[in-house]
């Protein structure tokens, strides 16, 4: 029944998608494929993406969205809700974390209502358009709201019915806000500070410039509900326009100053005389951007899924820098509350995004990514730690020290924009200390990890998962040190990067929780979640040895045993035991709904697993399962993801996989082969060269690579190097519905592992 319902949703969405051709000028239009409602049908107990209908430009400093959730709730938009209480400037990188520095505008008709519950208006999705460059909804009260984005602002248009008074409510939310109404200039200015664990020094300064005069105005207090008419200053504001007005407002924000907010407004929106000009300009930005990857062949639904995921993969990490009056970049640092020259990016959790989102950026946006990794060391200077989860400053959520993954990966791919010795010094500090913010700020259990060779359980929370990820991070430190001549760090991290071996139990064949006395935690069940594992079980965490899959294969008994264990992940019942969670969490429910055995693609630890068949001489199984996961677990509807989208990671998994390869081990220059979705894909690289992937005879059944050539030369290896792609050229694949069991099986064809 579920599968039938999803198919019906997909068919209905495709009818809507291709019926709306108002802004389609020719066949090169790719924006029309994107549905920003993808993944919005989410809740606390079941997530299909945890996304909101983001209206933004690529990697923009601010985004905009309709708000169905209450103020301060991370669940800002849920598809099942039927009323909107505001249109919000947003930044959120996870529904599990409340947003920061947000405010909203809400049009009201008839009697003025400012309270978020009283002003809420019902709506229907049939009256909603959700595109990257344009959001539109007509509420049941006949008010139409439209939004078009810039990088640090937006252009909005509110069209009111003639039958009632026309009000606009500005809500400064839950913490610090200050608003000033300037009727003579048709303007509102102010600042806000709201969110969790924010410095009180952080301000988001904003300016709202209207094209219509105010017929009335005042301020209101969100705690008491008191309205004060004809008052210019307060925490929140309301203004009134003539009945039936079509009001346009340009807005921009700055973290630096009110003057900078005005400059951002003038620079980004000053040349647009009308809302439609802003909308069309944003369309061109997105259409050109999406054109970096041109796909041909495939079904309309596959193109919609690809470009919707590509859109979502292109939002994080977002810019936190601005341009001064001379056009030079500078930023307010949430790490030390000072203004610095240069670039800063934020709003991402590396535990999720080191795997695919940043490797995709390194491939498509090397200049931006080079600035990003250099800024990691600026953050280290400003707060004494490498970021692990920036929102917008350091939060330290989840596990691992994955800033080193980004740094090592960039260096391996030729992005030498930072001082590697400083990076290694920062990582050594990270790996030998515990910071004040969250488990991933510094290294939880670092002393035991160094002395015992593993994190003991239960002394260290989620100890086995941390041991596995620390070992990978130490590999990244090792390889960066090796490439840059730091023999001290090479020796230190070279000893630690094999620590994954110390939590493997040869009797059960699984990674397990190990106690301080060396014994394994008793009463082991591989399908029990939690305990020594993070958001998963032993079946999921078995494979988190990204840097030494050959070592893992040997430890598990060789190629045949390894492949058999991979196979059983898909063939096992999708049962689970809640373990230390005490009850089902949404990741468990999503694994069951995926109905692919114990394969839990909705969470990060297992997302690379399908590609591991390449390391054991059966690459055709990687090809089969990569296509199966894409086909079964992704689509372009509100149910479009198999779990949390997580700041671009789950989307980036799809984008890379649809191209036909994946970044199993960031920190190396390799992408491991899978099976491309489309007959032809053309990647236009930043250096002007093109890498073309031709998949002759490709179809939903013909998922197996029979033969391959790279620039006319026979290709048998199961991976591509970064320079194979960035040098440009043609990867030609012959596809079939039958696996080619003699291709890509020799030892020399297999991807990188520390153990040869």
Automatic annotation (TrEMBL):
Full protein name: Alpha-1,2-mannosidase, putative
A Pfam short name: Glyco_hydro_92N
Record EC number: 3.2.1.-
GO cellular component: cytosol
UniProt organism field: Chitinophaga sancti
Domain Glycosyl hydrolase family: 260-736
The protein's required cofactors: Ca(2+)
Gene3D superfamilies referenced in this protein's UniProt entry, alphabetically: 2.70.98.10, alpha-1,2-mannosidase, alpha-1,2-mannosidases domains, GH92 mannosidase domain
Main enzyme class: hydrolase
Domain Glycosyl hydrolase family 92 N-terminal: 33-254
Organism classification: Bacteria, Pseudomonadati, Bacteroidota, Chitinophagia, Chitinophagales
Molecular function via GO: carbohydrate binding; hydrolase activity, acting on glycosyl bonds; peptide-N4-(N-acetyl-beta-glucosaminyl)asparagine amidase activity
């Amino acid at each position: 029944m579920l599968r039938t319902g999803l198919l019906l949703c997909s068919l209905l969405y495709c009818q809507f998608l291709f019926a709306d051709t108002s802004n389609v000028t020719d066949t090169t239009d790719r924006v029309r494929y994107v549905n920003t409602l993808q993944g919005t049908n989410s809740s606390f107990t079941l997530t299909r993406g945890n996304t909101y209908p983001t209206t933004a430009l690529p990697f923009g400093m601010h985004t905009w969205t309709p708000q169905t959730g209450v103020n301060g709730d991370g669940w800002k938009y849920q598809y099942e809700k039927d009323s909107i209480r505001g249109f919000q400037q947003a930044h959120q990188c996870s529904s599990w974390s409340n947003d920061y520095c947000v405010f909203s505008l809400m049009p009201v008709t008839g009697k003025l209502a400012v309270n978020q519950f009283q002003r809420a208006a019902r709506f229907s999705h049939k009256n909603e358009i959700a595109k990257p460059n344009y959001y539109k909804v007509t509420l049941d009260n006949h008010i139409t709201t439209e939004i078009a984005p810039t990088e640090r602002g937006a252009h909005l248009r509110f069209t009111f019915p003639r039958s009632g008074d026309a009000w606009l409510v500005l809500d400064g939310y839950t913490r610090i806000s200050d608003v000033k109404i300037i009727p003579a200039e048709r303007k509102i200015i102010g600042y806000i500070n709201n969110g969790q664990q924010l410095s009180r020094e952080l301000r988001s300064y904003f300016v709202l410039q209207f094209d219509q005069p105010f017929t009335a105005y005042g301020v209101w207090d969100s705690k008491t509900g008191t309205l004060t008419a004809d008052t210019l200053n307060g925490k929140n504001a309301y203004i009134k326009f003539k009945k039936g007005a079509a009001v346009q407002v340009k807005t921009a924000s700055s973290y630096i100053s009110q003057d900078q907010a005005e400059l951002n407004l003038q620079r980004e929106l000053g040349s647009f005389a009308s809302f439609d000009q802003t909308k069309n300009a944003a369309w061109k930005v997105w259409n050109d951007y999406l054109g970096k990857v041109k796909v041909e062949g495939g079904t309309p639904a596959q193109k919609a899924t690809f470009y919707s995921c590509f859109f979502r993969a292109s939002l994080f990490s977002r810019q936190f820098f601005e341009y001064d009056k001379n056009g030079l970049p500078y930023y307010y640092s949430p790490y030390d509350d000072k203004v610095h020259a240069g670039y800063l990016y934020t709003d991402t959790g590396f535990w999720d995004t080191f795997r695919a989102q940043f490797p995709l950026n390194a491939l498509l946006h090397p200049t931006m990514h080079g600035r990003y990794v250099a800024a990691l060391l600026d953050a280290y200077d400003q707060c004494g730690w490498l970021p692990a989860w920036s929102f917008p400053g350091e939060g330290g959520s989840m596990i691992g020290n994955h800033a080193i993954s980004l740094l090592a990966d960039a260096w391996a791919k030729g992005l030498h924009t930072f001082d590697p010795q400083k990076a290694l010094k920062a990582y050594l500090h990270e790996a030998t200390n515990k910071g004040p913010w969250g488990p991933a700020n510094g290294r939880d259990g670092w002393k035991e990890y160094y002395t015992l060779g593993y994190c003991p359980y239960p002394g260290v929370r989620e100890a086995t998962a941390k041991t596995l990820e620390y070992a990978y991070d130490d590999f990244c430190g090792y390889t960066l040190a090796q490439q840059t001549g730091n023999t001290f760090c090479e020796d230190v991290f070279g000893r630690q990067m094999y620590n994954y071996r110390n939590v493997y139990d040869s009797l059960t064949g699984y990674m397990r929780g190990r106690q301080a006395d060396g014994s394994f935690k008793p009463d082991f069940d591989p399908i029990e979640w939690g305990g020594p594992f993070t958001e998963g079980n032993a079946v999921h965490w078995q494979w988190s040895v990204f840097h030494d899959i050959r070592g893992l294969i040997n430890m598990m008994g060789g190629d045949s045993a390894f492949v058999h264990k991979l196979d059983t992940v898909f063939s096992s019942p999708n049962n689970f035991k809640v373990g230390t969670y005490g009850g089902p969490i949404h990741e468990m429910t999503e694994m069951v709904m995926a109905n692919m055995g114990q394969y839990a693609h909705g969470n990060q630890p297992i997302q690379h697993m399908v590609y591991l068949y390449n390391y054991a001489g059966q690459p055709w199984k990687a090809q089969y399962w990569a296509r199966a996961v894409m086909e079964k677990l992704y689509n372009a509807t509100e149910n479009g993801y198999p779990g949390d989208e997580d700041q671009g990671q789950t989307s980036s998994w799809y984008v890379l996989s649809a191209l036909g390869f994946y970044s199993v081990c960031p920190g190396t220059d390799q992408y491991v082969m899978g099976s491309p979705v489309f007959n032809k894909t053309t990647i236009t690289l930043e250096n002007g060269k093109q890498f073309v992937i031709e998949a002759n005879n490709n179809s939903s059944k013909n998922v197996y690579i029979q033969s391959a050539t790279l620039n006319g030369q026979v290709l048998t290896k199961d991976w591509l190097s970064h320079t194979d792609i960035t040098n440009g050229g043609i990867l030609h694949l012959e596809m079939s519905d039958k696996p080619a069991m003699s291709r890509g099986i020799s030892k020399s064809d297999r991807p990188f592992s520390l153990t040869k």
